[in-house]
Structures are given as structure tokens and as C-alpha cells.
Amino acid sequence: MHHAILALVLAGCAHNAPPAVPAPTTVMVTAYDPAAIVAATDRTDADRALDEGRDPAEMLRFYGVVPGMRIGEMFAGGGYSAELFARAVGPAGAVYGVNSPEMLERFAEGPWAERLAKPVNANVHRIDAPFDAPFPGMNDELDVVFSILVYHDFFWQEVDRAAMNRAIFTALKPGGVYAVIDHSAAEGSGDAHVQTLHRGDEALIRAEIEAAGFELVDTSDFLRNPDDTRDWSASPRAAGERRGTSDRFALKFRKPG
């Protein structure tokens, strides 16, 4: 009897319940999608203009950037990549962009400050520090540190690169990734073209980073261009229409642990 009465009550409640709310028609993106990050409509036209030559979606995929990570960037400049990282790691993550006082004074201060004022970059933290002493006070804290098209600059700027790489090693978590992308110099050229052509010798850069204790675990050809003669300046100010077409190596190092 009691069961029968309960059934009638439940049926009546169901009959008198308000109609179900229709499912929203907007498609909600629940999965991490690097392509969607790059396609965000609120990115600037100036940033979008750089995308073709940098393939940022593939960069995020190759280096394994996902929400919640803590990312460091060497020589963040005006923040093109830092903003992409900020969007990728989301509010649960953080980005730490390093610029040296000298580079801020020469060109980066205005663009960097403007970038950091954007709400989308609320999780980006500014670090003004010499490049051979980046990420002060950080020990086993970062998931990835990026050096994008700038390692060659550390030569002509006379950065103590051994100290720099040791500091990056210290700041990364065990198993953390050191991501290095740079314009390719002619093989075996050493540091001969780091300032004149703004290019780095892949073998030399790899040797320096491995000397700090890192292990090379992967490479990618997503920015390779076999047609690049490697005899012209890849500097953004000198490349002109060829900007974004230089042959570039992408190296993925890991801190053991």
C-alpha cells in the first residue's frame, strides 16, 4: 500500500514539475585545443600576422603545453608567445616572462607593459632580470621553459650561458622541459653568425644545454625550411618579406628526474 501511494505522489510531482530547460545551442569547448587558442578572436592583428611563420599551435602541441602548467619564457620581448602561453595554461596556470633591463630599455618596455595590461594576461608575471640569472628564487617549480628565436642573442649580448642554463635547470621541476627554437646557422659555423645573421649553430647550442645536465629527448621539423640558404639575416628588423621563412630547429630537452 505504501509503495502504491508513493508511486502516485511521485507521478503527480513529475506531472506538475516545470518543463525541462532546453539544452543550450552554443557548443561548449571542453577539451584543450591549441588551434582554438590560436584562433581566438580577441588576439591582435599584429599577433596573427606572425602566426604563419611560427605555427604556434604545433609549438604548443610539440612541447606539451596544457592547462594548469607553470611556464617560463626567456627574453619574452613584447609578449607574443607569453600571451599564447597565458591562454593555454588558463587561470590555474602561470607564465613567467623574463626580460633583461638592457632589452627593456632598448625596445621591450612599452610593448611588454601594454601586453601585461590586457585582462587575458592576468596570469603572466613580469621578471626583470639578467638573462644569466633568470627565475630568481625558483627551485623545481616550472613545467616548461621556452627560449624562442633568441638563444643566438645570448651570445652577442655576452650572457653567461652556462650560468643561465644552470639557473633554468634549477627552476624546472624534475622531468620539466627546456624548449629551444632558433634560426639555423650554417652547420659547423659556431658563433660566427649570432649577431650578423641572427642565427645559431644547432650543434653548439645543443652541446651547451646538455653540459648543464639536460637530456635531448625529441626534435621536430615543423619549422624547417630546406630552401633557406642561411646566408641572410633572420632579424625581424632586417628580414623584410623573408621574415618567418628561415630554417629553424626545435629541440626538446628534459631535466632528468
What does this structure look like?
It is a single chain. Helices cover 36% and strands 19% of the residues. By secondary structure, the chain is α/β, with parallel strands linked by helices. The chain has one domain: Rossmann fold.
Strand-helix topology:
Layout lengths: L1 H15 L17 H5 L6 H10 L1 H7 L7 E5 L5 H10 L4 E6 L1 H16 L7 E5 L13 E7 L4 H4 L4 H11 E12 L18 H10 L3 E6 L15 H4 L8 E7 L3
Parallel strand pairs: 1-2, 1-4, 2-3, 4-5
Antiparallel strand pairs: 5-7, 6-7
Characterize this entry briefly:
By secondary structure, the chain is of the alpha/beta class. 36% of the residues lie in helices and 19% in strands. The longest helix has 16 residues, at 101-116.
CATH topology name, in short, is: Rossmann fold
**Total of DSSP H or I helical runs spanning 4+ residues:** 10
Spans of 5+ residues with little confidence (pLDDT < 50)? 1-30
**Total of domains:** 1
* CATH architectural designation: 3-Layer(aba) Sandwich
Please report which band the strand proportion falls in: under 5%, 5-15%, 15-25%, 25-35%, 35-45% or over 45%: 15-25%
Order of helices and strands: HHHHEHEHEEHHEHEHE
Q: Would you identify the CATH H-level superfamily?
A: Vaccinia Virus protein VP39
Dominant shape: globular
* β-strand number: 7
Largest sheet: 7 strands, mixed
Name of the top-level CATH class: Alpha Beta
On the 0 to 100 scale, the average pLDDT is 90
N→C terminal distance:
67 Å
**Quaternary class:** single chain
